[in-house]
Specification:
The chain has 143 residues and is mainly α. It folds into two domains: 1-66, no CATH class; 68-142. It is 69% helix and 0% strand. It has helices spanning 3-27, 34-46, 51-59, 72-87, 94-106, 114-126, 131-139. It comes from Flavobacterium pectinovorum. Residues 20-57 form the Co-chaperone DjlA N-terminal domain. This is TerB family tellurite resistance protein. InterPro entries: DjlA_N (IPR007791), TerB-like (IPR029024).
Length: 143
Amino acid sequence: MSFSDLFDSEFKQRNKGHFSAIVRVALADGIVHPEEKNFLDKLASRLEISETEYEEILNDPLKYPINPPYLHVQRLERLYDLTRMVHVDHHLEDQQEVMLRKLGIALGFTPSNVNHIIAKALSLVDKKVDGDTFVYEMQHMHK
């Protein structure tokens, strides 16, 4: 196995873990709504998730672990995707918010500040900010 193959394999595994985390959020209320399905379809394409992998993850999203990125900016980018999934059907279910908090901790945010981080993330997504604005605002929320 070449070095580039190893890198590609690890990259694909991280993408599958990220996608499965988003599927968990979508399934937190027991139903994947049409708006959530559209979001998942677009995200799967962006993350290079094949149709077979897509179906496999939908059937068992717990199969892939959440691998938090090393860089804080990448964690915020993943939080942006997760928060958009929660917000995509325009009504926040209790289970979705609880799941988002759990995933926030899994991404590496501390239990002591995850509630504040999730509240800010939901507020920004509610304002329909883009990814760059989201990351900037989250990085500067304590300044």
